[in-house]
Automatic annotation (TrEMBL):
InterPro entries: Depp_CoAkinase (IPR001977), P-loop_NTPase (IPR027417). One of its GO terms (biological process) is coenzyme A biosynthetic process. Its main location: cytoplasm. HAMAP family: Dephospho_CoA_kinase. This is Dephospho-CoA kinase. ATP binds at residues 20-25. Pathway: Cofactor biosynthesis; coenzyme A biosynthesis; CoA from (R)-pantothenate: step 5/5. Belongs to the CoaE family.
Amino acid sequence: MTDAAPRPAPLRLGLTGGIGSGKTTVGQWLQEFGAALVDADRIARSATAAGGLAIPAIRSAFGDGMIDADGAMDRARMRELAFRDAGARQRLEAIVHPLVAQAIHAEAERAAADGARVVVFDIPLLAESDRWPPQLDRILVVDCSEATQVARVQARSGLAPDTVQAIIASQAPRAARRAVADMVLHNDRIPLDTLRTEVRRIADGFGL
């Protein structure tokens, strides 16, 4: 009796894009087409929700005023603080990012053990990180103009244009994201079904 051949490691696909780029939709479609999806935003929200692992450290660093009545991080107040105070943003990232990274690795390991052929790492700040790109096999960037970003975010969340522009300014420039990309998916003024067809083509290329 011979031992079974070891299961090949899944392809590790990084997925990123600026706010309002359509990255989340692309990730959901890749998951629908057969990839395992590890969503850093979802993990971060869990860490800062009521009872989340980051809450004690956030309370200690920023005070009770940054914790809402339910015991979760007050996301609106923290967003406002982080965008006007770089030091506060760095303190928050120092609390949340290690917890998120640990959870990302755990989810990816479970997906590999379950036989996933492709694991998609949906990481909004991938281009800002020195740590993530070397750990990935390929990087897909979803790209669109800043005007499109502002219009989409306003439509879905009602944020003022200057608030959206402040969020965009806090993220890596488009050129920096494209510089780390193996593939760029352009999502400016194209129908959703056209974008979906492009994502299907990418998934096919990975054997999904």
